[in-house]
Design brief:
About 30% of the residues lie in helices and about 25% in strands. The chain is an alpha/beta fold.
Length: about 300
């Protein structure tokens, strides 16, 4: 998969794709249905499958001090899109110049002249251009004039209503990772580098990997049964484990992070990239009267997580 970030400087080989447009936060089933349409339309005209998205997320650009809301970072999104067969990721720099384009200018400068797209697919609620003034129907009209096809995809409905990033955030906030997974079409994952911690877990007999969740929507704090993918390094592979997400009240922590104990594992993972999938919520965070009580609870958590994960 090739990543293109500037629509003014595009190699000929990267032009002419069939593209789904959106933010694709989470790459959920609704997003996947739009991507499937772009793939089918591309197959008809021999065009590679592409995605147009924006970085930073426009919501982050216009409200940089708002609470974190993203389900995944740009690297995790790219990994997921590549797994779906995307060949061109137009991850455009969202800045003052791009946000000032009128809907017509966006269609002409970015879609037509800049990227030379052959077909675009958008959701029925798609808005674009300065002040979100353009709607999906406007894009159809511009496409007729400028020579690119447009498909408007219907919004996907799941068993519990419309599939959306907002509904997924709510499920995660309420400690319902399986409901989130049903809308995502995959487990919700937190990806990132393993960073140094205070090594308390090692002293307690539960060495953990530490990962930051900065910039991400925080799922409900507590303990989870997890699947772990080590994405690189000598220990690359798939594992099971239990993870604590939150501020570690037992040790008066303040900055939320993800600490994962990987079952039956021995090795150094500092600096490795991990992808931790939240499978089941086991219990809230708690402060215990003694380290003995804390360790006993961790023993119980791990036993419960093992039972859950072996049935998958």
């Amino acid at each position: 998969m090739r990543i293109i970030r500037d629509y003014d400087y595009v190699e000929n080989a990267d032009r002419g794709a069939s593209v789904a447009i959106g933010n694709f936060d989470g790459v959920h089933l609704g997003h996947q249905s739009v991507i499937d349409i772009a793939r089918r339309e591309g197959d008809k005209i021999n065009a590679p499958l592409g995605i147009m998205t924006f970085e930073p997320h426009p919501r982050e650009y216009f409200a940089p001090d708002a609470p974190p809301f993203r389900l995944m970072g740009r690297e995790a999104r790219a990994h997921r899109l590549e797994k779906l067969g995307v060949r061109r990721l137009y991850e455009l720099n969202f800045n003052a110049a791009l946000s000032a384009l009128t809907p017509y200018e966006f269609a002409r400068n970015v879609i037509s002249n800049g990227l030379g797209l052959k077909h675009v697919v958008v959701g029925a609620d798609f808005c674009f251009g300065k002040g979100r003034a353009g709607q999906a129907g406007d894009l159809v009209r511009f496409g007729r004039e400028m020579g690119f096809g447009v498909t408007i995809a219907k919004l996907l409905e799941g068993d519990k209503g419309q599939v959306s990033s907002t509904a997924i955030r709510l499920a995660l906030s309420e400690g319902r990772p399986r409901d989130a997974a049903a809308m995502l079409g995959h487990w919700h994952r937190i990806e990132g580098l393993v960073v140094g911690g205070e090594q308390r877990g090692r002293e307690l007999g539960y060495p953990t990997t530490n990962m930051s969740i900065e910039g991400l929507h925080p799922p409900k704090f507590g303990v989870y049964a997890v699947q772990v993918d080590v994405l690189d390094g000598p220990h690359k592979g798939k594992y099971h484990g239990a993870a604590s997400l939150g501020v570690r009240p037992m040790f008066n922590g303040e900055i939320p992070n993800l600490e994962t104990f990987i079952f039956d594992f021995s090795g150094d993972l500092y600096g490795a990239n991990l992808s931790v999938a939240l499978v089941d919520y086991l219990r809230p965070e708690a402060k215990f009267d003694s380290l003995e009580a804390f360790i006993a609870q961790m023993d119980a958590d791990c036993a419960q997580a093992r039972d859950i994960l072996k049935s998958l």
